[in-house]
Structures are given as structure tokens and as C-alpha cells.
Amino acid sequence: MSTTNQETPLHIACKKYDPFDKDSIDMCVLMIECGGDLEVKNKVGHTPIDVLGRNRKTYGLESEHAKPIKKAIQRREYSLLLAEESYPVTIVKVFLVGDPTAGKTSIKNSLTMNTKQMHAYIPTPGIDVGTYEIEDVGTLSIWDAAGHIEYHVTHGMFLGSQNSLVVLVYNLKEPNAYARLQYWLRFLRSGQSDTAKTKLTIAIVATRLDEFDDKEEALQLAKKHLDDVRAYFGKALDIATDLLVVNACDAQSNEMGIFKSTLRNTTMEIKGTRKIPKLCEAILENKASWVKPKNPVLPFLKFIERVKEVDPLASTKLAKIAANYLEDMGELFLAQNGNISHVVLDVQWLAYYIIGPTLAGDIFADQLNVLAPKAAYSKEELEGYYRDVADFSTLSQLLQSLGLMVTFNDINFVIPAKAPKESGISKAKFQKGRSIFCDDDRSMLSPVVFPTIQARIMKAFGSESNQPIVSLGSMQFANETLALVKQYEERDAINFAVEYKDEDAELCYNDLEKMTSIIVSTMYELSPGTSIATGYLSPQSIQQCPTLVSVQYYKMKDIELGEDDDGTVYHKSLEIKEKTSDILVAGGNPQFLRKKGMGCDYQWMLRKPKERLFGLLDSTTCLRTDYRSLAEILNIDHGDLRVIEERCLESNSSRTEFVLNHWRATTGQRMSLKTLHAILKHPGLVGNIEAATTIEDMMYELGQQVTFDITDADTPSSGEC
What we know:
- The chain is elongated.
- The strands form 6 sheets. Strands 2, 3, 4, 5, 6, 7 and 8 form a 7-stranded mixed β-sheet that branches. A 7-stranded antiparallel β-sheet has the order 17-18-19-20-16-21-22.
- Strand 11 and strand 12 form a beta hairpin.
- The protein folds into 5 domains: 54 residues, Alpha Horseshoe (Serine Threonine Protein Phosphatase 5, Tetratricopeptide repeat); 187 residues, P-loop containing nucleotide triphosphate hydrolases (Rossmann fold), CATH 3.40.50.300; 121 residues, no CATH class; 152 residues; 124 residues.
- The chain is α+β, with helices and mostly antiparallel strands.
- 41% of the residues lie in helices and 16% in strands.
- It starts with 8 loop residues before the first helix and ends in a 20-residue tail after the last helix.
């Protein structure tokens, strides 16, 4: 099926692609994964990818905004690999996740040692990875993930493996056990796209059975928790139905036997539905010989060379597809920083030996050389710190590609996740801001999102001379023109604001749009299971909460539907009215102007057209087709006009703008673009066709056709938009 332009449904979906609209993303991804033709061309020779996002802004496939599409294409390309000879998966990854002291490591020890164990608590730094032969289960790759919050930032990087089972362990005796169980399920959901063909299988294990006097009470409590979360999360997560309540240290108990049975059945199911292509199997067999001590990282082009040595018939495209396939299987890790791409061949090295010590808190001081929190580290400090485990020149590129490190000069390095805890937000006078927040209480932002956003905004807005003040939950640039804060309390949100001046309206709007773009695209990339929405911060609330924590906001639909005739919006929680022009960026916001059209007040005109309009009307003509006629039509007497002219002469300001502002101040009314355009065009009023055309041209650029009706030239009465 195609249109008259010979466009397929995939062409149309790609044209409408919007990286800020989840429904738009999901539609394109679904059509690609269901076999939509990526090569077919329309009447002018464009493929669907050529027109990606054209209704908004064409995005190249390498753009950050196009990552969901690129991933969908990669998943579809796996059929090329699987069309070759392939083998069943023989080893399944088991991720143990949960709070510190929940019993994750004890469960691992019970499985691997098969005897009753009693050990002193030793926290796990990062993720401890090992492969074990488990009696009555088979061969498992067990990933024991640290429960401490500093490591939650990077856990999501490793949890997307397609051949894996997540075992969520929680302490049934803990007073807030159910809340912690919900937290971890929200965490897991944040990394799972709703359009993913295969979802993580999650088995929930409640521990501390031995601490209950009544075992039946423990079973009933755990069953209620399991039933409640399965009902609450519904189809968003694949939660196993098995009721698993154990003493984590007792390998010989009946309960541990039931857990082993669940492991065996679930891993057998995974093995039966996952395959590993012959080329990928060959890479796994040979990758250990490709790496040097302390540096299991290859430049991507060197990796391609090694693959071709193993299989001379493998094309470069097939080798790239194999790399992506193995990343999805959790067997290697791909990273890109600008044009430099690397392949991490030993994922355990990255998880345990790099991320483990880098993010370790004080609780690990007896085990590790802990990296003390700092606003920035020198190159010499980090070279010394990583000397025994990595080549720092390669590692720094790798960590920058992961959004864990930023540098402006290759001398000093910022690690956002290791920044001091104190907030860096000063009480600067921010006037305009937004909030990107979770609009579903089952959602949360993946912990990796905020430090990655910090890193990306630093690179986008910062420089060696304008480096931001960074803390764990905030960031503010030294010139105090831009601030960012992560809010953890009642709702999971990222708030940001900029300093605003009328003359910089367009710059202010562009900065807000740029930040929104970075934040939203990062969320969709790293937290695809999170449902988000955008709010516009209340200016009065910003003044009351200058650190941007707990600041109140409006949704755009509240502004569009709730705006009164006087251009104000009522905030129910704050019980105040605020001007729409104060909430949004009048003079720089084409989206609002496009939505409201000619009903908008003249102050919403964009900067360049407004300057041109005022310039045309400020120039006096013998026919008086200028600001003087406009003042006469608006009933501004000669005395007031002379005062306006004197003030404009003193301040070098626009006479036309002063006339319109004076009329607004004395009448309390608003001048819509529709009325202003008619007054300017009407030959019996101002009659300045060139000035009226300026409005027409601006609206045409925004996709709106302007018509002229002589009755629109009536001076607006009270209450007109």
C-alpha cells in the first residue's frame, strides 16, 4: 500500500517521528520490527529513514534522537546472523539484585557451595561475575550486583541481556519490605521498553524465613506481596508466579530446593528460546586472546579485523551486527565517544574492576582504595588510581562514552556520580524553567539517567572557561544562567531553569529547548520503560524555591485550556494566578504561537519579525502609516504620545512597542495578532501593507494561513484574546 507520493505506511510513520513522543517512537519501532521495507523509495527517491522526523526536523540515523530506530533496525538485522548456522544458548545469566544485606551473596554461596553457610557480611563492590556448575540446575553465569545506591547508576547498563533471569531478593523481615520490593521492580521496569519483543523474566525471592516464629505467616506475607506486585505492574513486567521464600544461608532446605527447581525450569525455557549464531560463538571462543593485560578494550575497527581473522567470509556489516547481538546477550559492551568507538571484551573487568572501585562509598574502605568524592580530579590522580587495572588513556575515552566522565581539557576530569553530596544551586534569579517528570506511579527514572544528563549538558553548554558546579543531585553553571536539579521526593523528576531577560527571549527559549531535548532523549534511551511528561515551572514557585526542589509546575494542556481572557492561568495548588507570558517564553516560543495562532497577543511574536514590524512602524511617513496612526486608533492622546516619544528618545526604544504597552497598561486589554494585523492592513486605519505582511510571513513560516477580515480591525473590547 502506498500514497500518491508512492510513500509506504513506514514512510508516513517515519515522517511523523518525534523523539519526544513515546507513541511516535513505538509506532516506528513496531513497524520496523514487523518487517516494514527500509529500502523502498518514494516518488522523490527517499527511503523511510531518509525522511525520519521530517515533519519536525530530519534526524540522521547517527543522531542521539534516532537511537530507538537504530536499535530496532539492529534487532531486525539479527535475522541475518540467525539465518547462518546457530546453536542453542548453553549458559544463562542470573542477575541477583536487591538491597544490601538482603541475602544475594548468601544465595549465590548456597547455590555454588551446596552447604549451609554462615558468613560475616562483606558488601559487594559493583557486580561480581562468575560461571558455576549448579547441581540439579546446570551451568549459570551469576552476576551478584551490589545493593548500595551508588551502584544503581550503572546496574542498568548490564541488565538488558536477552539470555538472562533476574532474581530479585528482598528482606521479608524489613519493616518497609513491600516498598523496597516496589522500588526494585520500578527500577527494572525503567530499563524495559514496552515494545521489546522479549522482556526480562523476574523471579522474586523473599529471605529471612528463619527469623519468623511462624513459617506460615512468612509464606502468607510473601504471597500477598507477590500477588500485589503482579497485579500492580500487570503486563509491564514478566514476574514469575512461583512463591519463593528462603533462608538464604541454608542450601539443604526444602525451600532452597524449590528455588533451584524454579531456576532449572526458567533457565531451560530461556535456553529453548534463545540461540547464538555461529559467528558470535566463534567471537566468544577467541576474544580472550585478543586482549592485553589491564586493557580488554579494542577500537571498533580493530575488533572488525579480529572477527575477519576468525571468519574470513564475514562482511564488515555482519561483524557489526554480531557485535550488537553479543552486546544484547551481555557478552561484550560497545561504547562510542564522538567518532571513537570501543568494544569492551571483558564485561566483568568493566563491572567489577572499574565501576566497582570508581563508585564505591565509604562502607567499602576496608576492601578497596576508595575514590574520595570531588568536584573534579586531575589526570595524574586518575592515572595513579587506575594504574593496576587499566590504561587510563583508553579508559577515559570509555568512561566518557558511557556518560560517567567529562573533561574540557584532558587535564581535569569530572565524574558526576562521584560529585560531592552538597547541592551546588545558589539562589540565583531564575525566571523560566521546566520539569520532566514521571507521570505514572509505577515508573521511575533509571538511576543512570541523571549523571548521564549532567555529562551531556556539561558538554553541550560548558567550556573550559564556563565549567559548572556539580553535585550528586544538581548542577549549575558558574555564570548562573542555567541550573539543573534532580528531585527525589514525592515524584521522580528533573527540574531545570534559566535566567531570563526580555531581549534574550529567543536565546532563553532555545536553551530550554536544547536542555529538554537532551533530557528527554536520554530518558528514552536509558530509561525506555519510564512514562514521562513535561511541566512548565511556576515563576512564583521558582522564587519561593530558588534551589528548584519541590517547585510547582503547569502542564501545557492546563495553560491552553485554562488561560483566562486576561492572559492568566490559575494554579490550584498555589491558589494564585500567573501570566502565561511569565510561565512560557513570550517572543521566543514558536510552538505556543503555532498552537494559538492569530489569537495570540502581539507580544508572542518572534524576535526578528517583531523587530522588523516595529522598525517599519517607527519610521514616520508623510501618509502617517506608522505608530502615530496606531496611537490615534487606540485613543492615545497627543500629550501621552509626546511623553512616549520623549521616553523612547532617552532609552533608544521602539515607539510602536511603547504605544502598544501603554494601551495595554491603561485599558487592561490584550491586542491579538489578528486585530493588530487587521488594523495595520486596513486602508482606512494604519494602512501599512508591509508591516501587515510581516505578521503574515511569520505565521506562514509556522504553517498558518492568515486571512483578512475588515471587521477584525475593530479595537478589541475588554476580554478579547
